[in-house]
Design goal:
Order of helices and strands: HHHHHHHHHHHH
Structural class: mainly alpha
Pfam family, one: Cytochrome_CBB3
Shape: elongated
Number of helices: 12
Keywords: Heme, Iron, Metal-binding
Oligomer: single chain
Largest sheet: none
GO molecular function, one term: metal ion binding
Protein name: Cytochrome c
Helix content: 40-55%
Length: about 300
C-alpha cells in the first residue's frame, strides 16, 4: 500500500468522522439558533461570505437605470419610511426596538452607501434566515428602483432633508399590495397596525352594541316586531258580548205627573203610602235584540278599555 492510498484513506476517515459528529450535534440540538446567541466566528464568516457571493453573482446580470431623477427619489422616500426605516434606520434616528432584536444586525443605510444592482436584487428577493423580506412579491420593478434611488441618496441627507423628502412623497404607495406596516413590523405615520380584538367578550360586546344601535335607531320598527298589529275587527252588535247595555230611556212627562200625583194623594208625607206603592211605569218598547250569532272576534285591550270608560 503506497503513501497516496494511505493518505486518501485517512482523509476519508476524518471526513466521515467529522460528518458523523456534525450529524450527532445537529440531532442533539447542540447548536443554539436563537437570535440573541451570535454565531461562532467560523460559522458567521462562512455564512457572510456565502451571502456576499450569492448576491454579487446574480446582481451583475442587472441593468441599472438612471437613479438621479428627483421624482424617483421622492416616490421612494415614502416607501422607505413605511417599509424599511424600522430596521435600517434613518438620518437623525437611533436604533429601534426592532433593529436591536434582529440578528444578523441590519445595516444602517443612512450611513452606508450601497451598490445599486446588489441593493435592487436584495430588496427584490430578500435574504434567507435574516429578517430581510422579498419585497418583489408586492412591488414591481419601477417602484423597487425608486426605492434604490432613495437609499442611494440617503447617506448624504440630514434629518431635516429626510423629513422633507418623506413629507413630499406619496407615502406608502407602490401600485397595489400595500398593507399597514408592510410586514416589516414597523410603519411610518399613518401606517400603524390596526388593533384586533379576538376575544369572545369583545365579539359579544360588539354584537350587543349593534343590537342596541338598531333598536334605538328605529323604536317604532322594534315595537312592531315585538308587538304585531292586531287584525281589523268588526264592530260589535247589540247581541255581541262586547256591546254595552243600552241606557234606559228617560221618563215621559205623563209618567212624571202620575208619579207626583200618587205621592200627594192625601195619605200624608212625601214618599207615598206603603199600602199603595207607586204604579210601575209602563214598559217601553226597545230595540229588538239582534238574532245575529255572537261574534267570534277576540276582545282586544282597546275594547276592554272602551267598555270600562262607558261604565
Amino acid at each position: 500500500m503506497n503513501n497516496t492510498l494511505r493518505n486518501t484513506l485517512r482523509l476519508g476517515a476524518a471526513a466521515t468522522a467529522a460528518l458523523g459528529l456534525g450529524a450527532a450535534a445537529l440531532w442533539a440540538g447542540l447548536y443554539d439558533v436563537g437570535a440573541d446567541a451570535p454565531h461562532t466566528r467560523p460559522v458567521y464568516a462562512l455564512l457572510d461570505y456565502a451571502r456576499e457571493r450569492s448576491v454579487a453573482v446574480r446582481a451583475r446580470e442587472l441593468s441599472v437605470p438612471a437613479l438621479d431623477d428627483a421624482e424617483r427619489i421622492r416616490q421612494g422616500a415614502g416607501n422607505y419610511e413605511a417599509m424599511c426605516a424600522g430596521c435600517h434606520l434613518a438620518p437623525g434616528r437611533g436604533p429601534t426596538e426592532l433593529s436591536r432584536g434582529l440578528y444578523p444586525a441590519p445595516p444602517n443605510l443612512s450611513r452606508h452607501s450601497v451598490d445599486p444592482a446588489q441593493a435592487f436584487w436584495t430588496i427584490r428577493h430578500g435574504i434567507k434566515a435574516s429578517g430581510m423580506p422579498a419585497w418583489g412579491a408586492s412591488m414591481d420593478e419601477a417602484h423597487l428602483w425608486n426605492l434604490v434611488a432613495f437609499v442611494r441618496r440617503m447617506p448624504r441627507m440630514d434629518a431635516a432633508e429626510y423629513r422633507d423628502w418623506v413629507e413630499r412623497s406619496d407615502g406608502h404607495s407602490h401600485g397595489g399590495g400595500e398593507t399597514a406596516g408592510a410586514g416589516s413590523g414597523h410603519a411610518g405615520p399613518g401606517h400603524a397596525y390596526p388593533a384586533h380584538a379576538h376575544s369572545e367578550q369583545a365579539h359579544s360586546e360588539q354584537a350587543d352594541a349593534r343590537r342596541g344601535d338598531s333598536a334605538s335607531a328605529d323604536p317604532a320598527g322594534h315595537a312592531a316586531m315585538t308587538h304585531p298589529a292586531a287584525k281589523p275587527r268588526r264592530p260589535a252588535t247589540a247581541a255581541s258580548p262586547q256591546a254595552a247595555p243600552a241606557a234606559p230611556p228617560p221618563p215621559s212627562p205623563s209618567d212624571t205627573a202620575a208619579a207626583s200625583a200618587h205621592g200627594h194623594d192625601g195619605h200624608g208625607g212625601h214618599g207615598g203610602n206603603p199600602a199603595h206603592p207607586p204604579k210601575p211605569a209602563p214598559a217601553r218598547s226597545g230595540p229588538t235584540p239582534s238574532t245575529q250569532p255572537p261574534s267570534d272576534v277576540e276582545t282586544t285591550p282597546a275594547d276592554h278599555e272602551a267598555h270600562s270608560h262607558r261604565h
